[in-house]
Amino acid sequence: MAELDKVQFADRTQLLQACIHCGLCLEQCPTYLVSGEEMSSPRGRIHLMKAVEDGSIDPQDEIFQKHEASCLVCRSCETACPSGVQFGVLMEQTREIINEQTKPHWFRKFIYTKLIGSRSIAVMMQFMLLLFSKARFVRLLTETFDLKKSPLKRFAASLELLPENVPFPSKRLLIYRTQQARRGSVGMLIGCIGDQFSSSVNDATINVLNRLGYDVHTIPQISCCGALASHSGFGDHARELALSAISAIESADIEYFITNIAGCGAMMKDYEKLFSGTPDLSRAQRVRGKMRDISEFLLEFHHDDIRNLNIRFEEKTSIGYHAPCHLYHGQQITDAPRELLSLIKNAEVFALEENTICCGSAGTYNIEHPEMADALLDRKMEIIKTQNPNVVATANAGCLMQLQKGLRQQNSEVKVRHAIEILQESMSRK
Q: Does this model's pTM top 0.85?
């Protein structure tokens, strides 16, 4: 491995030994709940990692690679673990080892090291998908052909995730200035993919922050947080993107940096794990002090301000909340979105059953592993059908698209919204 990887993995043996194989993680692991396979549980996957570490099996072993690739990296096992096993770090290291030993397919490498993080390529793709969407090409293609059973199943999975109307590409302002009494300046992550397909979430976030007296800086130098590359084992590229983001935040004239995508927020708060044992560790730690999820920021600093606005729905509205894995398990933010939504009069907010179990989105997991992702989505659809909310709320762009796909396929009238969108719309009505 490269010298940087040796530094990154210096404590791997110690991290692996933290697991005592107690099994408390099993019933919290989505892939184990669906498959029932021990090797598809955190305990089983760590057993395989240890076997590679001590030389019992080769990192090119097909069984080893199959079970490590099938993990969602949802980190639910970390919440359940009494020993504090850092499973997310171990899994990302493992996938980096696999990429070192088994050269990834050129197209997969292109996606995670070139496409993701390139605004120009992303905008080109958005134009293409916009045309497909307007021509109803996507629906016609998926309704006419059963692509799930063809070699194009991953392509089919990506098409099914598209919203009914892909937004037209637009250039963001560098600063969205408040028209209220100014309280400060914050940076906001626009996202490498999120703004292409769920730009309304960013619009709502900017609107709420402006209304509360903040200038919002979009900081275009941050092209991507690095999460998707890191989860897929392209650690060098993830560290490059992370260092670029750290430099941009350091030089920006802001007090806080806001995210509304749970996976990106978890990644950026964990930058210090990428740079453990390197000179950049202290920089990552300083940036960590500025990081806030939008729900965390509003609840920490503006709970009373929002409550005093006396915002309301015109009639009783039940909101079922689905907690994104990387908000709940990654950032340990368990209740903030629900508490904010509960400030809206006539809102009846409750957590959906199996609220801490992944919906199957998990970054690009629903494209790379569509069968398991669909099985997990089916569980969510049954829960939503049983609990029957008027609206499903979540706090992550990936969950938003995944749940919208499931409800669209069932011809359900239940809408899925990001919590900040619901809050912003209520404030606008006020």
A: yes
